[in-house]
Amino acid sequence: MRIVQLIDSLEIGGAEKMAVSYANALSAEISFSGLIATRKEGALKDELQSDVPYWFANRKSVLDFKALWRTRTFVKEHKVSILHAHSSSFFFAVLLKIIQPSLKIVWHDHYGYSDFVSERKNKRLLQWASFFFYRIIAVNEKLKNWSKKELHCKKVKYLPNFVAVVDSESGIRLHGTEGKRILCLANLRPQKNHWLLLEVAKNIKNSHPDWTFHLVGKDFKDAYSEQLRKQIHASQLQHTVFLYGSVAEVDVVIQQSEIGILTSISEGLPVSLLEYGYFGLPVVVTAVGEIPTVINGTNGILIPDGDTGSFTEALLQLIADPVKRTEIGTALQKDIKQHYIKESVVRDYLNFISNGN
């Protein structure tokens, strides 16, 4: 098999991390494994293994034919047979297939609003594009069922994300007191619901002012992040809640933290949850997307979406009980290393690509 991963950007995000992880993991399993970034490079480029051929299409517009033809040259040169298109890169993949009909497209759906998938804005475009799809991979069961119902490619499979952590020699130093840091690994997007986090932070500050919250994830410099910053100041949380932007050295920030949280109103299968677990971090997370299939009560604490009181209470329990933190962190680490590592997922992936099951 000769497969190339297709992704619009290599800035830090869940879909982008998985594109890089698949490219790296497949390099030892198949004849050719490469990666193409269509629109923008980013920090994740540095995580590509040296043996993974890479191409930057430098697409300037939706219909950038120069970028398309240059990319076709890369595809032909490496005799690529399968385009594994992540998220919105499916459109570029379809254009490539039109000018190189022998290509097979595997579309990987990472849609972050999976709990509201019926409201998907690009549904008609996806329905048209799906006539060109060979296989569809979904990051949770809701997305799998939606594709089976709405799209024209019926070879659809749920495959969990897997964790592939690159060990870093150095990295950012978090603010706050060692042993009293709460980490939220999530880009600053509305579905991540940082408003719940701020409400919880206010409650924790009242009883445990030495505990701090650390928000690591891309800041899009939009209305959402602007309002978030204003609310932090309005709530006098400047010394309790810290924003860092994107950080490539995930292992470094996790190992400086005591508890991992996610306050989302919708998720697929968050890579950050798998990363928390890989390093044995105890977690408090909202019960959205595929999270309840990973967290079961003994390996983490599940909270109903939007429930500030329950979220606060769960954090207070963990803050007060270091033994419980260790127990649930260890249990989650065991589950992640058993079910969400590359070996098992890649095996199922290659079987699905080859046989459709």
From TrEMBL:
<dbReference type="Pfam" id="PF13439">
    <property type="entry name" value="Glyco_transf_4"/>
</dbReference>
<protein>
    <submittedName>
        <fullName>Glycosyltransferase family 4 protein</fullName>
    </submittedName>
</protein>
<keyword id="KW-0808">Transferase</keyword>
<feature type="domain" description="Glycosyl transferase family 1">
    <location>
        <begin position="175"/>
        <end position="331"/>
    </location>
</feature>
<dbReference type="GO" id="GO:0016757">
    <property type="term" value="F:glycosyltransferase activity"/>
</dbReference>
<dbReference type="Pfam" id="PF00534">
    <property type="entry name" value="Glycos_transf_1"/>
</dbReference>
<dbReference type="InterPro" id="IPR001296">
    <property type="entry name" value="Glyco_trans_1"/>
</dbReference>
<feature type="domain" description="Glycosyltransferase subfamily 4-like N-terminal">
    <location>
        <begin position="12"/>
        <end position="163"/>
    </location>
</feature>
<dbReference type="InterPro" id="IPR028098">
    <property type="entry name" value="Glyco_trans_4-like_N"/>
</dbReference>
